[in-house]
Every structure is written in structure tokens, then in C-alpha cells.
């Protein structure tokens, strides 16, 4: 049982999503920030206690804990509203123990209030996959009613697609795998083709979710003049040499996406509640975390895996959980 610091909430975990970053943390693809850290940064839980300064949430209230856990608030990036770029930032399930456990802690200033109309399992993947997908959508500067291409269609992309569609975009999905293409069409995409195919029309914006650098020139060539390609992943294989005339001229732009701000998270959760954004989920008991990670690695499911704490007692704040 962890002890919350003065500014932290002690949270009983109800559900915790399984994100690809957890795999990178647990298999050592990312440098170790804390020995034997408990992974998990898509946490839906119930407040059971709080430190003396963490009074913004009540005991019993349902809260979300996500990847971004701390920023300095003083550097140039924090002061201009880009806290996702803070060099002193810290992360849940990497710098501090996360949600693959019965109990965890979260600084109250970084905890999210959650929409009551979505149940805990469906909510969990929204807290990283959803928020990052939304940040990527913003970075892609999609114009009103614009044409959006999504390269790769896993946990993050299928949530991002729902937001874009709700805002009136026409969405083209480019991904391998018939199941993912079928899910894309079910959600309302105009077309779904193989990753290296050409979409049926030029794109105003594209987002690369697949961690495949070879797709960067492919996606840039699919853009119309002035189009923007945003790369959503924390990892990407090497990008091959670009041809200036075919892939960048006419003011095409190539952008990366780094983490998110708390404002991104709040905006996305409001949009998700308003537009009924839902994750396609596969539930595992908490004790099967290792299996869930291995299934993610092997691509054995579409959508997102979620660990469920079956020992969590129903109680106040468990609305819909
Ligand atoms: Zn800072
Ligand atoms: Zn994540």
C-alpha cells in the first residue's frame, strides 16, 4: 500500500489500460528511471485517501491518472503553455509506480475528473491512447471538414478517428490487417486500404501512428499542397531520405508529437463524453498483466487491452464501474 505525499491522492485502481509504452518500459527499450517500477499510466481509480494539500478531490470520487505526472511550472516551456516539453517532467509508470496494482498514487494537480457516462474499462484507454491521439490531431492542423489520413490503426488511431469524424472530417485509414480496416469502416472511415496504398483523394492532414519511418515519404506524397503530417509515436524507425520536390515542396509540413499537456487531456475527455467516443477493449484480470503485454506485442487483439482489478469493492464514486 503506497503512502500518498502531501500533494497526492491514494487511489484504488478499478481499471488500467495497457499501452505500448508499458512494453517499452518493462522490456528496457526506454532507460530505467526507477528500479522495478510498476507500469501503467491509463488508470481509472477511486480516491481512498489524500495528502493534506491534495484537497481538490473527495474520498470516493472516481479519478484518472495518466502519463504526465509532474512538470516544473517555471521553465520557458511551462510558462508559455507547452508543459509537454518541460525538461524536468516526470511520468506515471516510469518515474513513479503506476496502475498495474491494486493501489497507486497520483499528484492531485495531475489527476483528471472523469465523465460519469463512460464505464471504467472503456475509459482507461482514453487516458493515454485517446489523449495522445487528440494531441496528434491538433498537431496535424486539420481544417474544418478536412480530409484526414491515418497511417496505422491501433488503440490511439481508432479513438482519434472518432473525434475527427465527430468534427466533420473525412477519414481515410491506411493500415495493414483486414480486422483493423474493417473496424475503421465500421467507425465511419470513408476508405480503408493497405498502409503503402494511395488514399482515394489528396489529404489536408495525416497522422502517422505506425512506428515505421518508411511511411513518412509515403504519407508526405499523399498530402495536398500546404498539408501537414504529424508523427504520433514515441519511437520511429529511421526515416529514409526525402525528396524535396515530391515530399516537402508546396509548403508541406512534417511535425512530431511529444506527450501532452493537461489541457489536451481535459479537452479530449470533454469531447469523448460529448461525442460518445468509445475504446474497443479486451479485459484481463490484474494478475494477467504479463499476458496482456505479450498479446499486445504479438498483435493478438484490435483496440486496447485493459487490466481490471476484480478485488475493488463497489462503492461511492464507482458509478458505471
Ligand atoms: Zn517546466
Ligand atoms: Zn501510453
Number of strands: 15
How many structural domains can be distinguished in the coordinates?
Answer: 2
What is the level 1 CATH name of the largest domain? Alpha Beta
Beta-strand percent range: 15-25%
Helical residue percent band: 25-40%
Radius of gyration: 19 Å
- The rough form would be described as globular
Treating each run of at least 4 consecutive H or I residues as one helix, how many helices? 10
Major sheet, described briefly? 7 strands, mixed
Class inferred from helices and paired strands: alpha/beta
The distinct bound ligands, ions and cofactors come out as: zinc ion
What distance separates the N and C termini? Answer: 22 Å
Structural summary, described in words:
There is one protein chain. With 321 residues, the chain is of the alpha/beta class. The protein has two domains: 8-128 and 260-308, Medium-chain alcohol dehydrogenases, catalytic domain (Quinone Oxidoreductase, Chain A, domain 1), CATH 3.90.180.10; 130-256, Rossmann fold (3-Layer(aba) Sandwich). It is 26% helix and 24% strand. The chain has ten helices and 15 strands. It has helices at residues 20-26, 76-79, 120-123, 129-139, 155-166, 178-187, 215-221, 244-248, 262-275, 289-297; strands at residues 8-18, 43-50, 62-65, 68-70, 90-91, 103-107, 111-113, 147-151, 170-174, 191-193, 203-208, 223-231, 253-256, 281-285, 304-308. Strands 1, 2, 3, 6, 7, 14 and 15 form a seven-stranded mixed sheet that branches. Helix 4 (129-139) crosses helix 5 (155-166) and helix 4 (129-139) crosses helix 9 (262-275). The longest helix is centred in the last third of the chain and has 14 residues, at 262-275. It is globular, with a radius of gyration of 19 Å. Residues 316-321 have low confidence and may be disordered. It binds zinc ion (ZN) (2 copies). The site of one zinc ion has 5 residues, from loops.
